[in-house]
Amino acid sequence: MSSTVVSKDGTTIAYDKRGEGPALVLVDGALCGRSQGPMPALADTLASSFTVYNYDRRGRGDSGNADTYEVEREIEDLAAVIEAAGGSAYVYGSSSGAALALRAAAAGLAIEKVVAFEPPFVVDDSRKPIPATWVQDLEAREPADAVRYFMTTVIGLPGPMVTMMKLMPAWKHLKAMAPTLPYDARVVGGNVAGRPLDASQWAAIGVPALAVNGGKSPAWMKTSVRALADAVPGAEHREVPGQNHLIKATAIAPVLTGFFTH
C-alpha cells in the first residue's frame, strides 16, 4: 500500500507498507528507491514476519525535496516514517542508508534495533581513497557525469564498464537519482578519509546494533565494518558467506529476522 507522510520541514515522503508484524523501516543506499534497487525484493521477503515500510528518501521517486540539503532533514524524514509506523520501529540500512540509520539512532530516534549493512566507510589505505572534495565534485556535475564519477571514482568500477551501462535501460533511472548523490556523500561524511573511525559520532547509540558485511566483499570493506562494530557501543558483527555489496534478499532476510526478533 502506497502512502505519504510530511516531514518536519514540509517535504512529502512517499512510502510503501506491506506485511504484518513488528514495524521495520528499510533505508536505501545511493541511486536506489522504493521501486528500484534491493529493497522491494527484501520488503516482499520480510513481509511474512514484519510490517515493512520501504520509503523514497528525499529527492527520489515520489518523495519531495527542498531547495537546500542538510543531513538533519533526512533524519527527520526517517523520524516521520517511524511515526507513521506507529511511533517506533526496527531499522535496516544498506550502504549509505546504513550510515543514515546509524546517524538516526545516535540522534535518538525511536529505533528499537538497528542493522547497518556495509556503510561505505574507508578506514585504512587498502583501497584508492575517495577524494576529499567528492561532495563538491558531485554537486558540480551534470547527472550523467555525476553517475560516472560516482561509479568510477567512488565505487571503483572500470570506466569501460560504466560506458556500457549507459546502453542499459537502468541508466535513465540512475540519471534521475543523480542529484541526490551529494546527499549520500554528506551522510557518509568524513568516514571515507582512510583514517580510523571517530567513535564519538555514534557514542549516543543506546539500542542494540548489528554491523554486517558480505563474505565476498573486498577486504577494505570487511575491515571497515569490523571497525564500525567496534566503534558503536555494544554492537555485534556478522559476515554473510557468499555475498557482496549487492546482497540478495534471501541472504540478508534471515539475519534481520534473527536479530530483530530475538
Can you walk through the features of this model?
The protein is of the alpha/beta class. The protein has ten helices and eight strands. An eight-stranded mixed β-sheet has the order 1-2-4-3-5-6-7-8, sandwiched between helices. Helix 5 crosses helix 7. The longest helix is centred in the N-terminal third of the chain and has 14 residues, at 71-84. The radius of gyration is 17 Å and the shape is globular. The two termini are 28 Å apart.
The percentage of residues in β strands lies in 15-25%
Q: Calculate Rg over CA atoms.
A: 17 Å
Compute the number of helices: 10
Q: What's the SSE pattern?
A: EEEHEHEHEHHHHHEHEH
Strand order of the largest sheet: 1-2-4-3-5-6-7-8
Largest sheet: 8 strands, mixed
- Class based on secondary structure composition and strand pairing: alpha/beta
The tally of beta strands, per DSSP, is 8
**Can you give the helix content as a percent range?**
25-40%
